[in-house]
Amino acid sequence: MIDTDKWKEIIITLKQNKVRTFFTAFGVFWGIFMLIIMLGSGNGLQNAVFDNMGDFATNSCFMWTQQTTIPYKGFPRGRFYRFNNGDTEALLQNIPELKDLSPRLQGFGGDGANNAVRNEKTGAFTIFGDYPAWNRIDPIQVTSGRFINDLDVKNRRKVVVIGKRVVEVLFDSEEDPLNQYIKINGVYFKVVGVFKSKKNGQQAEREEQNIHMPFTTLQRIYNFGEDVGWYAMTAKDNVPVDVVEEKARAILKVRHSIAPNDDRAVGGFNVAKEFKKMRGLFAGINGLIWIVGIGTLMAGVIGVSNIMLVIVKERTKEIGIQRALGATPMNVIIQIINEAVFLTSIAGSLGLVAGFWLIELINFALNSSGSNGEMFKNPEVDFRIAISALVILIFSGVFAGLIPAKRAVSIKPIDALRTE
Predict the structure, then answer these.
(1) Judging by beta carbons within 10 Å of its beta carbon (0-12, 13-18, 19+), is residue 137 exposed, middle or buried?
(2) What is the DSSP track for 336-401?
(3) Rounded to whole angstroms, how far apart are CA atoms 25 and 96?
């Protein structure tokens, strides 16, 4: 059964100096409140960053051409070169660890001029020549129709997959764009698919202004010949993309007579490395949040310990009477610890609830304002982590009460009774 008298006594004791008790409890409250807010904010920032990546393949890399920086085999430094279809075949045949390879080209509209026409409507959009593999590397959500397929590439079909924004500009609101035709660079293309972005914010807006057509078709209508703009590639499962990247660089250098040690001639971007850096960055941020949060909590716990020391000093005579009437040292220790635990538990629970309430309020405000979540999205705190922090805080309250409790039992009853 619960001894209500003991808890009433604890409350009466703490109420004897309300101001001191309030500020001590506020220290504990503020510590766990700030920990919850900082954890939620850190998660909100992390969610926004990784959500902006959509379903981008993290085990991927990109390669493009740059000027050579070292003379080699009679070629001077500063030489320009272009990837070509032969490079594509060489990469596919000589890198067994390669999972997906997508050559890409980008069309142009002539200094930002409108490059897509349908009846009386025109628009300037970014046009890409792609392989089906691109939608596995940087996926988009095809809302109707389909994406580019292998037969489209093989037969150089005049088909396109258009973004949501392209539909809004070139078609009336009630029109179904599928199987309709648009004119690009003077050539008519059949719309076989419509997509929307899986990203957020400005990235999504930019992506939904894209038009995708078969890679080989774009090569022909823009007179690119055999040229390839750049490569996107992924490694097979459980194979680091660094292996694929290293082999691809070596193959491309040999094919284009580039010095083996000319690392700047083949430009590249390793998504896996950047993703790892971001993970490390957020792990560091979370670690810093915990250090600051735990430090703030401990400051509150120390405050509890200090107020209990003051309370013990003020109640020295009372403790002496209890001891004289038969109370054991353990009775006194339990009483002091109960008071410390009560203070930390109440203040910590209120801080926990207030922290979660504010996080939910921020989340509601973000959703209500129509925020695109580009910089901050869905701040959240794992409830298990929050409860674990509260449990740790309560146990800290036990230790906070131990020092004052030991101080209380160290006073001899006869000395305590003499205290004024």
Answers:
(1) buried
(2) HHHHHHHHHHHHHHHHHHHHHHHHHHHHHHHHHTT---SS-------HHHHHHHHHHHHHHHHHHH
(3) 64
The size of the chain, in residues, is 420
Helices (H), 52-105: 85-94
Q: Is 25 exposed, middle or buried (0-12, 13-18, 19+ CB in 10 A)?
A: buried
Confidence category of residue 1, pLDDT binned at 50, 70, 90: very low
DSSP string, 182-237: EEETTEEEEEEEEEE-SS-HHHHHHHTTEEEEEHHHHHHHTT-TTEE-EEEEEEPT
What confidence tens digit (pLDDT) does each residue in 303-341 have?
Answer: 777 776 676 666 666 666 666 666 676 776 777 777 777
What are 329-334's contacts with CB under 8 Å, separation 24+? 329/409, 332/405, 332/408, 332/409, 333/402, 333/405, 333/406, 333/408, 333/409
Q: How many CB atoms lie within 10 A of CB 324?
A: 12
> Using only C-alpha atoms, what is the Rg of the chain?
34
Kindly report the pTM of this predicted structure: 0.72
* Token duo for residue 386: 């929050």
Q: What local confidence, expressed as pLDDT, does residue 14 receive? A: 63
Percent of the chain with pLDDT over 70: 81
Q: Report pLDDT digits (tens) over 332-365.
A: 677 777 777 787 888 888 988 898 898 888 888 8
- Phi, psi (deg, nearest 5) at residue 274: -65, -40
Residues 6+ apart with CB under 8 A from 342: 7, 10, 14
CB < 8 Å & 24+ apart, contacts of 253-258: 255/86, 255/87, 255/90, 256/81, 257/72, 257/73, 257/75, 258/68, 258/72, 258/81
Tokens 């146990």, residue located: 395
Contact 289, 38 (CB under 8 A): yes
Residue 239, token pair as written in the block: 């194979």
Rounded Cα gap, residues 2 and 280, in angstroms: 49
Residue spans of alpha helices (H) in 52-156: 85-94, 134-137, 150-154
Report the pLDDT value the prediction gives residue 249, as an integer from 0 to 100. 95
- 83 forms beta bridges with 228
Find how far residue 395's CA is from the centre of its chain.
32
Q: What is the pLDDT of residue 110?
A: 44
**Ranges of each domain in the chain:** 4-53+276-418, 108-221
- What's the token pair of residue 127? 């046009």
Average pLDDT over the chain reads: 83
